[in-house]
Amino acid sequence: MWELFKIQLVGIVLSIFCTVYWSKLYPKHLFLSRKILHILVISLSGNIIFLLPDEYLKIVIIIISISSFILFFLVQKGFFKSDQRKSWGIFYFPVGLLFLLLVFPNERELIGIAYYILAFSDGFSAIFGRLSPIWLPSKFRKINHINWSPDSKTMIGSMVFALSTALILWLFLSADAASNFKNLVAVIWFIALILMGVELSASKGSDNLFVPIFGFLFLHNIENIFLMLNEHLIYYLPLLLMGIVFIKKFNWLSNSGIFQAILLLTSMVMAKFTLLPILLFFILGSISSKLNKVQKSDSKHGKARDGYQVLANGGVVLLLAWLKIESQNEIFSILMYVSICISMADTFSSEFGMKFGGQPWDIIRFKRINQGLSGGVSLAGTIASFMGAGIISLCYFYLHSDGFVTLLILFSGVMGSLVDSVLGSLFQPKFKSEFGEIMDFGKKEDRVSGYALFSNDFVNFLSNVIVTGLSYFAILVYFMYLFG
Description:
Structural class: mainly alpha
Order of helices and strands: HHHEEHHHEEHHHHHHHHEEHHEEEH
Distance between the termini: 51 Å
Strand order of the largest sheet: 8-7-9
Largest sheet: 3 strands, antiparallel
Number of strands: 9
């Protein structure tokens, strides 16, 4: 076995050397050489993990940890670039692998399959996508372009990704005699299309992190997928299609937003969590966002919510759903209510506050600021945050009849809205317009305060993480009191 490892390690080193030499010799082939390197190194790494004996696990984890630190500094210093930008995907690849090996050390075969998908599906989709404009008729080139993320993606590349993923899954799953052909095909295409959407939504190399992680999670819970498709597909698919038509008609979500919403709903169904609170948030939040048609807060306000906005409000719920799937711990169900309640309270506070609150006060500096500016609070907005939090907390009480947890959810929702305002006031970028007005969006050179990292989406997500995390400890104390 050790001899086989040595051969594959030598193969990785030779792949790096040969492709680097190729790109230096023929600079025009830089993109192609990088993608060939991607396919060779990641597939060989996946093969090593697939076959890894227990006695070598700690050594491999140490090697990957050291490699991750080295690659972070090399990418940060600009040693790896592709298309005139830093290639963070080179760093994300070992980080995702390290995470999976630390959390699921006994599931190395599934981790290996997930990295085969990243190697071949992602690699070939990029190659075919980049080459498609060359041979594709001009009248089809416009529809070939997909704009789900800042990165340029193509329909041809995405089709190649889905087909390659389906083939890899078929090769490894078709030997499972316990599942009939019809169900297996449905599961394979379900996973392939979900991972295609993950790749389409990713940017700046983050697909090297998220494709294998979600690929592993779905493979690890494949029995749940069989069960979900058998029990729910016939009911949910028609509703989902009608919902997509309705959403597009009213311009509530962009294409990337629709995919992230589907991923979120799918994860919640697999976690056996009721969809009522998230549907209440989506419908009422979307309606409230149309109260203010004028772009007063950030550059996305009044437009269809994109994938980043969906994750900003639902990313914590998505994470909690998967924690619930893996642990079967009901505390994560309560925290999902908390997270949804925070998003609902913050959305209501922002939209109703802008519509009815007049000129707000800065929550930190206690001075009047422009309407819609981050960090502002008003009486109308505060009342609206209680309304939004009340809807979700009453939903919990209706289904579970626990008064203390209901009050905790209500309190957490309102606190989440306030924490969002505090973070917005302290850290969110402020810009001065050509008329001297302070706004939440503008050109980089016009920024007068705040930090670029703290976008409106990131502030929404961070406030949700902070308050949901604090609620977790409060719930633990409550459970300790109940069960002594």
